[in-house]
Structure formats: structure tokens, C-alpha cells
Amino acid sequence: MEEKNKNTIRILHISDCLYLGGGVSSVILNWHKNIDRSKVQFDYLYFKDSYPTIDGEIKKLGGNIYKLPYPSFKKPWIFIKAVRDFFKTHQYSIIHSHIESFSFIFFPIAKFYGVKNIVQHTHNPRLGEKFLENLRNRFLFFLSKPFITKKIACSDSSGKKNFGNNYTIINNGIDTTIFKFNSNVRNEIRKELNIENRFVIGNIGRFAIQKNLSFLVNIFSEIHKQNKNSVLLLVGDGPLKNEIKKQVYNLNLTKYVVFLEVRKDIEKIYQAMDCFVFPSLFEGMGIVAIEAQSCGLPCFLSNGVPQETMICNTTKILLSKSAKEWANIIVDKIKNFERKDCSKFVEKAGFDIKYTAKKIEDFYLKL
Q: What is the pLDDT of residues 225-258, one digit of tens each?
């Protein structure tokens, strides 16, 4: 189906899954919605099934979706054959990879079958949550580097760590027209979640090591000792969710912690919060923190979050500080805080989706 319209360039985006709550999926989909699709169109190649998924939205936008078997180190020939068969039958002049560990297989095969432009995008300074995983993926990524023709990073810290130099920074954009403070929506959502008249600490993201949610629960425990009217709102899914629920139960906080699944109306959920706490061990950018700031929330970010993420109403707190120290800083900072819409500041900082989508569109057209 590729290249039907001679005036439209089709870009193949390669990512591990099409998860609705995934940061990478959100970035690509946001671009896809806002690019000029008469000039540039996106197709997607992935390996892992996930739910909820963005495939319905991709199809509405005119994108093609392809799935290959998940790579196995025990039977690598199955994956290699699948990649070879794919590029034999699908011609692209540009592929845009959002994965690092499998690229050393993809890139030489893609190049052999005529792909001229191989774009590698790095979304995180680390290539794995665990030490050995990061080490392994760094070695595999090194093998793919000779085939990369263009490099993109979501932040300077990610670019320097993974590319060293000669990379283009393209911000993860958000739609600042919907991420705005709205008191009416705030009242509706708080009523829906039964958290009216409560002080709500929020976080949105995967339940994974990187997000440091166990530490966040400990921070909330300390806040709750000072403010019995406080509630922790955790939105997302992931491998550690049951573990976090167990921790909440053991701390006798079950009545004060609200767990929500991934939602399509995430812009409304920010309205229900009173502050956003983001103690990640590391982040490429931390797009949820940008969204939270746009909605006017006071944000408390760890030193694992890039400096570019700090736009308005932010406080950076060292990960070396204890949960009690984090709690004291948060409680002190939110006293007399007056919430206002900050979407214009986020737009001015270069994170509006219309600006970033135009930037990626121009990037492709120059290729």
C-alpha cells in the first residue's frame, strides 16, 4: 500500500508495541494527528501485543500496521527471516526506529533492501531499567550505529548519552489547547472519582522500576501523616502494579490510594489533582510532567528528569533525599498555591504539538 500517492512520503515507525499508555506510542501518534498527511504519512511496525492499543486511531489517520514476531535470543533466525521477508515486500525510503536493542538486526537488512534513510530516535538516557539490561542493550545498540544516517533525541541528556554528538532534538509535543486548567472539569472528575474536598497528589505512568512508584508511595505515606485528608491518585498499568498495591495495603493506605487504568481522557484526570509528583529514576523527557505543568499543577520532579522539562511551577528534588524530606518540601510548597493555566508557557517553551509536528515533518521532507 506504500507510495500510492507519489506526492506523499510514507515513513515506517518501528516500536516495540502500540500501547495507548506508552510514552513512545503517544509521541508518534501525536505527530501523526498533526502532520500534513498529504505530504507525510506514517506506517507502524511492532512486535508485542498490548491493551488498550492505538491501532484504531492509526487506521483512522490512514496508517498501515504490521506486526512481526517478538525477537528471541534462543531462535534469532525466526526474527531475522521475518525482517527480511518484510523488507522484501515493503519498500520505504525512510524508516524511523524508536528501539535500540533490535536495531542491529533491522538496519543492515533494511539497507540491503534499499532503505536510504535510517533514523534512530532515543527517548531515554538509559537503554534498560536494570544494570545488566542497560549494558546488554548498549552493546547491541553499538552494533547498529554504523547504519544510522540520522539521529533524533527528545532531550539533550538522552542525545549526549546515546549519540555523543550530531543529533537533532525534537521535543515530545502536547496539544496545549486541551491541557489547560478547567475548574468545571476538575469538579466533575473529582466527583466521579469520589475525591471531592480532598488534597490529591497525582502521578501518571507505567508501574515499572524507572518510575520509582514504591518511593512515591512512601512519600505519600509521610504526607498523609501530616494531612489525613490527602489522597494519592495513580494512573497507569505495568508489571509492578500488584506489588505497589501490596505496599499500599501493608502501609494501611488502601482507603487513601486510588488506582486508575489507562484512560483516553487523561487531560481531564490532571484537573482532579492538586499537585503532580514525579520521582523517576531517569527520564528522556517526561511528557506527563509537561502535560501536568500545562494544566497549571505544581510539579515536584526528581533530578532524574531533564532540566528541559522544568517550565513553570516546578521544584526539583534530589533522589538522595528521604521520603520524609520530599514530603516536607511538597507540603511546604503547596501552601497558598494558586492554580492558573500555564499552557502558554509550555507552548512558548516549544512543546506545543503543532510546532513539534511541523518540525518532524520538515525533517522528513528534507531527507
A: 999 999 999 999 999 999 999 999 999 999 999 9
Average pLDDT of the chain, as a whole number: 93
CA atoms within 13 A on the CB side of 196: 7
pTM of the model: 0.91
CATH numbers and ranges of domains, the chain = 9-173+352-366 (3.40.50.2000), 183-347 (3.40.50.2000)
Average pLDDT (309-326) is: 97
Residue 172 vs residues 44, 321, 347: alpha-carbon distances, Å: 18, 29, 12
Query: 3-state SS of the chain?
Result: CCCCCCCCEEEEEECCECECCCHHHHHHHHHHHHCCCCCEEEEEEECECCCCECHHHHHHCCCCEEECCCCCCCCHHHHHHHHHHHHHHCCCCEEEECCCCCHHHHHHHHHHCCCCEEEEEECCCCCCCCHHHHHHHHHHHHHHHHHCCEEEECCHHHHHHHCCCCCEECCCCECCCCCCCCHHHHHHHHHHCCCCCCEEEEEECCCCHHHCHHHHHHHHHHHHHHCCCEEEEEECCCCCHHHHHHHHHHCCCHHHEEEECCCCCHHHHHHHCCEEEECCCCCCCCHHHHHHHHCCCCEEEECCCCHHHCCCCEEEECCCCCHHHHHHHHHHHCCCCCCCCCHHHHHHCCCEHHHHHHHHHHHHHHC
The amino acid occupying position 295 is: C
pLDDT at 34 over 90: yes
CA nearest 205: which of 269, 137, 296? 269
